[in-house]
UniProtKB/TrEMBL annotation:
Pfam families referenced in this protein's UniProt entry, alphabetically: VTT_dom
Signal peptide start and end residues: none
Keyword Amino-acid biosynthesis among UniProt keywords: no
Residue span(s) of domain VTT: 30-161
TM regions (residue ranges): 12-30, 50-71, 140-160, 172-193
UniProt source species: Sphingomonas gilva
This protein's name: DedA family protein
Stored InterPro entries: DedA_domain, VTT_dom
GO cellular component: plasma membrane
Keywords: Cell membrane, Membrane, Transmembrane, Transmembrane helix
Protein localization: Cell membrane
Membrane topology of this protein: Multi-pass membrane protein
Length: 201
């Protein structure tokens, strides 16, 4: 997968980095763990600057974050509730938990968004509940940008420092990302087995 990423970054520079990070946010199988270290490697060769790489990567990812936020906000909770009624068993959620989520996001939305940007898979998905539950746009943008910039800077700097050995970045971050995804899947299966809808009345 990394060959075409290398070519695109070499040919398109900052625009290529931004485009790839936008795709990574909208289509998670394209991993930032590969994109940003490669961009950092190019910066270490003098083809780009490290700050330029970080800013372009953050900008591209934020475009994707805002895409999902506004898409979810347009759909809104009211349109989402019929899906909950029909598929709540498999989503392991009901109307009462949606109401609880609204209260939690109203109180802790900034923290959810910030820390969500630092976790594999969750980085892309956190925009959806933020939009559905109408987290304040300024809060969403601020804390999404801070979290996204932190993650992007970490990966780009690792690639910059390691130079040609950027594969070592993926060797370290790859298993961590896989472990988080496995925990999410195991957690979902456990919740699926144990979940019961709230009693009415």
């Amino acid at each position: 997968m990394s060959d075409w990423i290398i070519r695109l970054i070499e040919q398109s520079g900052y625009l290529g980095v931004a485009f790839l990070m936008f795709l990574e946010t909208v289509f998670p199988p394209i991993p930032s763990e590969v994109i940003m270290p490669i961009a950092g490697l190019n910066a270490s060769r003098g083809q780009m600057t490290l700050w330029g790489v970080i800013l372009s990567g953050t900008a591209g990812a934020m475009l994707g974050n805002c895409f999902w936020y506004f898409a979810a906000r347009i759909i809104g909770v009211d349109r989402f509730l019929p899906l909950i009624d029909k598929w709540g068993r498999w989503l392991t959620i009901d109307r009462r938990e949606i109401e609880k989520g609204e209260r939690l996001f109203a109180r802790y939305g900034a923290a959810f968004v910030f820390f969500g940007r630092l976790l594999p898979t969750i980085r892309s998905l956190i925009s959806i509940p933020a939009g559905l539950l109408k987290l304040r746009l300024s809060t969403f943008v601020l804390w999404s940008t801070i979290g996204t910039a932190g993650w992007t800077a970490l990966l780009a700097t690792a690639g910059y420092q390691l130079g040609q050995q950027f594969d070592e970045v993926e060797a370290v971050i790859g298993p961590v990302s896989t472990a988080v995804i496995v925990l999410i899947v195991v957690g979902y299966i456990w919740r699926l087995i144990t979940w019961r809808p709230a009693k009415q009345g």
